[in-house]
UniProtKB/TrEMBL annotation:
Family: Belongs to the radical SAM superfamily. RlmN family.
GO cellular component: cytoplasm
Domain Radical SAM core: 121-363
Name listed for the protein in its UniProt record: Dual-specificity RNA methyltransferase RlmN
Keywords: 4Fe-4S, Cytoplasm, Disulfide bond, Iron, Iron-sulfur, Metal-binding, Methyltransferase, rRNA processing, S-adenosyl-L-methionine, Transferase, tRNA processing
Gene Ontology molecular-function annotations: 4 iron, 4 sulfur cluster binding; metal ion binding; rRNA (adenine(2503)-C2-)-methyltransferase activity; rRNA binding; tRNA (adenine(37)-C2)-methyltransferase activity; tRNA binding
Transferase in keyword set: yes
């Protein structure tokens, strides 16, 4: 089997500062914002307070127009307006599934597009955020993997997805109204397009902004980062972000995982498990989610289930079984419901939670692994995908 795309990172994030124009405040860390304010002429001793004030306007109240930041003096508002903007990416289109899932096609600088998905549930609302346009990795069952990587998102473009979803949900607080504790957008998963750990710094800065208590204020336990297994960045995820970790595991032998998740050739199952064993201690989080896509006849036998249980022994874990979501030209089929249930049962009886993920937003191609922006559609033919995956076509 040959792979046409590299399995390592080959791009860097280009900061989207307009050469001469105003700087976008969205996505700056507190320290970066402070520095920017000082450079723009804010006296050093005032800078921290100004950051606090502007931060609250932008991230707590959802205000983007400096003239509305009424606790700042008029002169200071004018100074800010000369040097800065508060800008988020634009929603190009918005589709709503019959199950209430919303999928946004989002345009970022340079005209590139990513997708963001909002999934309402009874007790929570989860926003599935993208971290890259496309992905350098080529997992053979993933639609995004057939799309070439265009570029990494900036921290502002990642945070911007949260802000635009709150706009669309109408969820900014109203001054004077009682605090509403039941949030429409209560959880974030980094499970959209891209490999978040190949865009570590921007993802970290964006998540720190999302966790900041004076703004969006989501606790680190309400954020889950999903990785295909970029082992060298796992410890940093624990110490620098501290959110929950999900791992795209998907196979119980290196032979099968090499095909499904090709990054396995670089960091195999044993190496990955070693890094995962450290995670709960380093991050003080409870358990790791193992994502396991159910592919008919590929990774779904009873033997696989038993091997999985053996492999993860000693790791506080939950196994999330994902029925394969099909996409045009996909070289796999979803395992039968009976097969998935039997598989889940073996894991459950070994003492691990083994929920079967209900596909959401399938009718609008918003389910796991179906995201792929229209700009880069159909780069590879069905035959090419099948050949790369090493499977014969049905
Ligand atoms: N790049 C990261 C995060 C994005 S993918 C990662 O790979 O973890 C989010 C989850 O959806 C991953 O577990 C991924 O393996 C899974 N997935 C991808 N394609 C899928 C498909 N067609 N059906 C079901 N799950 C899929
Ligand atoms: Fe990239 Fe994740 Fe899809 Fe693999 S599963 S191709 S890492 S987005």
């Amino acid at each position: 089997m040959t792979l046409s795309a590299p399995i390592t990172q080959d791009v860097h994030t280009i900061p989207r500062k307009l050469p001469e124009g105003p700087v976008n405040l969205v996505g700056l860390t507190r320290d970066q914002m402070r520095e920017a304010f000082v450079t723009a002429g804010t006296p050093d001793r005032q800078a921290k307070m100004r950051v606090n004030q502007v931060w609250q306007w932008v991230y707590h109240w959802g205000v983007r127009d400096f003239t509305q930041m009424t606790n700042l003096a008029k002169d200071y508002r004018a100074l800010l307006a000369r040097h800065f903007v508060v800008e988020i990416p634009e929603i190009v289109s918005r589709q709503v599934s019959s199950d209430g899932t919303r999928k946004y096609l989002v345009r970022i600088a340079g005209g590139h597009e990513v997708e963001t998905v909002y999934i309402p549930e009874e007790d929570r609302g989860t926003l599935c955020v993208s971290s890259q346009v496309g992905c350098t990795l080529t997992c053979s069952f993933c639609h995004t993997g057939t799309q070439k990587l265009v570029r990494n998102l900036t921290a502002g473009e990642i945070v911007g997805q949260i802000l635009l979803a709150r706009d669309d949900l109408g969820e900014w607080p109203v001054p004077g109204a009682p605090k509403d504790e039941t949030r429409l957008l209560s959880n974030i998963v980094l499970m959209g397009m891209g490999e978040p750990l190949y865009n570590f710094d921007s993802v970290r800065d964006a998540m720190r902004i999302a966790m900041d208590g004076e703004g969006i204020a989501l606790s680190r336990r309400r954020i889950t980062l999903s990785t295909s297994g970029v082992v060298p960045e796992i410890a940093r995820t624990a110490t620098e972000i501290g959110c929950n970790l999900a791992v795209s595991f998907h196979a119980t032998t290196d032979e099968v995982r090499d095909v499904l998740v090709p990054i396995n050739k670089k960091w195999n199952i044993a190496t990955l498990l070693d890094a995962l064993r450290e995670y709960p201690n380093l991050s003080n989080s409870e358990r790791i989610t193992f994502e396991y896509v159910m592919l008919d006849g590929v990774n779904d036998t009873d033997e696989d289930a038993r091997r999985l249980v053996k492999l993860i022994e000693g790791i506080p874990a939950k196994i999330n079984l994902i029925p394969f979501n099909e996409w045009p030209g996909a070289p796999y089929r979803r395992s039968s419901n009976n097969r998935i249930r039997t598989f889940a049962d073996i894991i459950y009886k070994a003492g691990y939670a083994s929920p079967i993920r209900t596909p959401r937003g399938e009718d609008i191609m918003a389910a796991c692994g179906q995201l792929k922006s229209a700009t880069e559609r159909a780069r590879k033919s069905r035959a090419q995908i099948a050949a790369e995956a090493g499977v014969t076509q049905a």
